[in-house]
Design goal:
mainly alpha, three-stranded antiparallel sheet, 114 residues
C-alpha cells in the first residue's frame, strides 16, 4: 500500500478533485492500481506490478505513438491499394479511405493533447 496526500497531487497535476478521482478510477480499471480509497485523510492505493511494467515501457506516450504509427501504416496501405484498383472500384475505396482518414484525424487530435 502506498499512502499519498490527495490535495498536493491535485495541485501538481492541476485538476479538481472530481477529475483526479476519475483518473484514479481509470487507473484502477486498467489494472494499474487497486484498493483505491480517496475518502481517507491519507489516501491509499496499492500499486500493481502492471503499473511498473507500463511505466518501463513508456506509458501512455509510447501507446499513443504506436497507435499513431499504426494509423499511418494503414493510410499508407490504403494509398497503395488505391493504385491497384480498377476505376469502377474507386467509389467503394474512397468511402473506406474517408472513414480511415476521419479516424486518423480523431486519433491525432487526442495524441496532440497529451
Amino acid at each position: 500500500m502506498v499512502d499519498f496526500e490527495f490535495q498536493p497531487l491535485q495541485e501538481i497535476v492541476g485538476v479538481d478533485s472530481d477529475t483526479m478521482y476519475i483518473v484514479l478510477e481509470d487507473f484502477r480499471e486498467l489494472g494499474l492500481i487497486s484498493q483505491l480509497n480517496p475518502m481517507r485523510a491519507g489516501t491509499q492505493i496499492r500499486l500493481q506490478s502492471k503499473a511498473h511494467t507500463f511505466f518501463l515501457r513508456g506509458g501512455f506516450a509510447v501507446e499513443d505513438a504506436l497507435n499513431e504509427a499504426n494509423i499511418k501504416r494503414i493510410l499508407y496501405d490504403l494509398e497503395s491499394l488505391q493504385k491497384q484498383l480498377k476505376p469502377d472500384q474507386l467509389d467503394a475505396f474512397n468511402k473506406i479511405a474517408s472513414i480511415a482518414s476521419s479516424i486518423a484525424t480523431v486519433l491525432t487530435t487526442f495524441s496532440d493533447k497529451n
